[in-house]
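Researcher: Sequence recovery benchmark, item below. Answer with residues only.
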């Protein structure tokens, strides 16, 4: 039986965005899993985040074959200077034409009915602005079960998401206008950029869930981002600070966000003191004190100053002041 061609139109229902960096082989597998989608109107945008391993060449070859097979442009490539996954996803979203956006990490895969099922779910639930699906986890080539705290849920999951990132980029689909209104991913985040965006969205929207495992998440391979970026809680602390400074949160949600921020600050500051990084520990302690005090009532004017100082700390770290060994907690 000849496989059905992927459906594409000038204004597709979904723009699928894959950010990639030095993953020529895995990117090709991820793109193939999108191009194999059944009965779904989509375009595929792969953003090469300054790769040096031939990923761009491989991407162009795949796109040429896909477009020839489809009889129209169904896949596009975009090459940018290396700035991280957040900036790469934003760059893809900026040229997207779809009503919805879907993201796929270049080390993950989709099952062939992923988009079709999710679009049907969204159309059956028109009030749903953002939704995801269940996943199969593969680590080191073997299937593993996610921990209970990672179990996905539907509805108001804001408070649960403060301590654990409960939405996966590879499983999410959302209205493009929701993404744009939220300002997209924060390009200063080299990690936890998804945690930051989901919190901003979940503060205003409930999440939908299609209870079907339509994504295959692959971990335990060289170059996995969570294994190469040290001290990821730095970014989560900044995300919570932004949330408290800019969001009109209810009293209960503000209290929950402050509690999560104070907890993360306590743990991270302890690690900094152990490594005699006293100046940085002092800043984190100051942020934790604000979370335990004034920020519980409302955003304070000094919160923006502290956010600027936290961003500066992260930039210094990213320039080489911190190493993976130093940041181990």
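Model:
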């Amino acid at each position: 039986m000849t496989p059905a061609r992927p459906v594409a139109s000038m204004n597709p229902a979904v723009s699928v965005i894959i950010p990639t960096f030095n993953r020529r082989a895995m990117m090709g597998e991820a793109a193939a899993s999108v191009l194999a989608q059944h009965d779904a109107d989509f375009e595929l945008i792969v953003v090469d985040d300054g790769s040096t391993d031939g990923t761009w060449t491989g991407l162009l070859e795949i796109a040429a074959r896909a477009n020839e097979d489809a009889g129209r442009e169904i896949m596009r490539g975009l090459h940018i200077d290396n700035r991280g996954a957040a900036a790469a996803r934003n760059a893809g979203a900026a040229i997207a034409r779809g009503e919805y956006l879907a993201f796929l990490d270049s080390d993950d895969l989709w099952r062939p009915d992923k988009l079709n099922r999710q679009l049907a779910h969204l159309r059956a639930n028109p009030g749903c602005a953002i939704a995801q699906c269940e996943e199969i986890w593969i680590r080191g080539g073997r299937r593993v079960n996610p921990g209970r705290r990672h179990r996905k849920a539907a509805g108001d999951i804001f408070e649960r998401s403060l301590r654990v990132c409960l939405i996966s980029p590879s499983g999410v689909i959302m209205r493009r206008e929701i993404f744009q209104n939220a300002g997209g991913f924060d390009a200063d985040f080299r990690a936890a950029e998804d945690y930051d965006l989901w919190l901003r969205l979940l503060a205003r929207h409930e999440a939908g869930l299609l209870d079907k495992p339509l994504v295959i998440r692959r971990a335990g391979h060289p170059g996995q981002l969570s294994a190469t970026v040290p001290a990821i809680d730095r970014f989560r602390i900044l995300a919570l600070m932004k949330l408290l400074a800019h969001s009109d949160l209810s009293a209960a949600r503000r209290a929950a966000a402050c509690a999560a921020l104070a907890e993360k600050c306590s743990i991270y500051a302890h690690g900094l003191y152990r490594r005699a990084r006293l100046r940085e520990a002092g800043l984190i302690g100051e942020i934790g004190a604000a979370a335990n005090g004034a920020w519980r009532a409302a955003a304070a004017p000094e919160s923006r100053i502290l956010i600027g100082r936290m961003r500066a700390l992260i930039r210094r770290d990213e320039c080489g002041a911190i190493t993976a060994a130093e940041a181990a907690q």
